[in-house]
Amino acid sequence: MRPALYGELTPWYRILDATEDHEDECDQYIEVFEGAIAAPRTLLELGAGAGNNGIWLARRFACTLTDISEPMLALSREINPACEHVLGDMRSLRLGKAFDAVLVHDAIVYMTTEMDLRAALRTAFDHLRPGGAAIFAPDTLRECFREGTEVHERDEGSRSLRCLAWDWDPDPTDDEHVTEYAFLLRDGARMSAVHDRHVSGLFSRATWLRLIADVGLTPSTFRRDLGDAADAGYTDEVFLARRPG
Ligand SMILES: C[S@@+](CC[C@H](N)C(=O)[O-])C[C@H]1O[C@@H](n2cnc3c(N)ncnc32)[C@H](O)[C@@H]1O
């Protein structure tokens, strides 16, 4: 079932996840792509959501932004009018063209089985030109996941959002964990409460490296600077996957 955050709660998305918080991280990915690919010009993002990466990546690349949620793509179109937008599932999308770079940021966490993760990695391979490279940036890995809570609070005009995000793992023997979001949403004098459960994949570094190699890409890893999020069970390890030239 699609999380409410990418459906009926989409009008609240920007208050939860501010565009400016993505600039530093995107600058790091641009630098890595520039070091890995000869004269990169085009970039495909799978699971681009509200376009919070796209807006920074588009300063360097001609970007095609894709997502499974039309309301999320609509948010992205507002801030990225020059980018191409395509509705599609990262497991099955086939655009019939190749790019210099592919990014799958936090949206990759919605791959909850090895079969789904492999399908998304295959989509990246199929959209890379020889000599191109992909970056896969899961929020966490099996090795560093830990249960915990985060509080998000932001106000914007007449609207205020308070959110508790609680990561936990109902069954440590499978490849999933969940994040329970408890939203309190205030619009003027109106207050509503929503519980939204997100089921995410939880794979070890070895599984990631094996699946990336399985689809024909050459894996390596690099470190990103996570700032304040470094201690919250997120991984700073990011996968770089090159398509042989
Ligand atoms: C956390 S949001 C991404 C936010 C994005 N990084 C941004 O900064 O705006 C995760 C996105 O993954 C998308 N998504 C989930 N499953 C997907 C799939 N199978 N294919 C493509 N997109 C997917 C959701 O619709 C959502 O927009």
CATH topology of the largest domain: Rossmann fold
Give the termini separation.
39 Å
Assign the CATH superfamily of the largest domain: Vaccinia Virus protein VP39
The CATH architecture of the largest domain is 3-Layer(aba) Sandwich
The main sheet comes to: 7 strands, mixed
Number of domains: 2
Report strand order across the widest sheet.
3-2-1-4-5-11-10
Which ligands occur here? S-adenosylmethionine
Number of strands: 11
Query: How large is the radius of gyration?
Result: 18 Å
Q: Order of helices and strands, N to C?
A: HHEHEHEEHEEEEEHEE
Oligomeric grouping of the chains: single chain
Strand % is: 25-35%
> Low-confidence runs (pLDDT<50, min 5 residues)?
none
CATH class of the largest domain: Alpha Beta
**Average predicted confidence as pLDDT:** 96
Molecular shape: globular
**Number of distinct helices:** 6
